[in-house]
Amino acid sequence: MVFQLVYSSAATQDFWPQDIFDLVEKARQRNGASDITGMLLYHDGHFLQLLEGPEEAVRGCFARVARDPRHTSVKVVTTGTCKERDFPNWTMGLERIEDAWNLPRAWSTIFEEGLSVTPTAESSSAVKDLLLSFRHKVESR
After folding, report:
1. Where are the alpha helices (DSSP H) in 1-141?
2. Which of 11, 20, 74, 118 has its CA 20 to 30 A from that of 64?
């Protein structure tokens, strides 16, 4: 079984494209060594991220994020286990969302709330579907 954790947070500083790429490159190195994969969405100063792998490693990674002064309002959206990884080949996928309003309505409401999602079964499912849609988008390029 694979443990998954999805969280949202707000940035405490401006993240220019190079800042995001630098953050993700460091995460990819650390995640690769810890057998963690996942996906990070960034939009308008907010993060939404799915981490997956061994539970202890994922929880440790999330604890580092929660302590990181570049994040505030860190909130777990959902946790759980699944039979296989959703992002098996991605030590950390990244998508900067420039135009959230072109997303399907169910997903654009997530962005209206600044990627701050109230944890419910419905929102957790929508968030996971949103993250997976970007995996499919990238894989079809």
Report:
1. 17-34, 55-67, 105-112, 121-139
2. 118
| Segment 85-139, tens digit of pLDDT | 999 988 776 665 555 445 544 444 555 555 455 555 555 677 777 778 777 555 5
User: Strand pairing partners for 37?
Assistant: 52
Q: How far apart, in whole angstroms, are the C-alpha atoms of residue 41 and residue 34? A: 21
Rounded-to-integer distance, Cα 90 and Cα 130, Å:
16
pTM here is: 0.79
Which residues constitute the domain of residue 23?
2-139
Amino acid at 38: G
Question: Of the candidates 1, 54, 2, 62, which has an alpha carbon nearest to the alpha carbon of residue 27?
Answer: 62
